[in-house]
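Input chain follows. Return structure tokens only.
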Amino acid sequence: MNQGGIRFQYSVFEFNNTKRVLDNIKLRIDKFYGKKFGGGDSVFIFETDETKAIKYGNAIHRDQELLFFT
């Protein structure tokens, strides 16, 4: 992904971008890939409010500045 996406797993991505970029991604999926999906394929697009997200584990460090002491 060139939109600043973060790959969580082989096929799971997270990205933060504008509504316009998200609309373009949806359009591209519909236009180019929609007809190629089979019974074993799935695409989920979850739109979330980042301010209401609850994070555990390593995810809590992604939005915080880190301090390193040497």
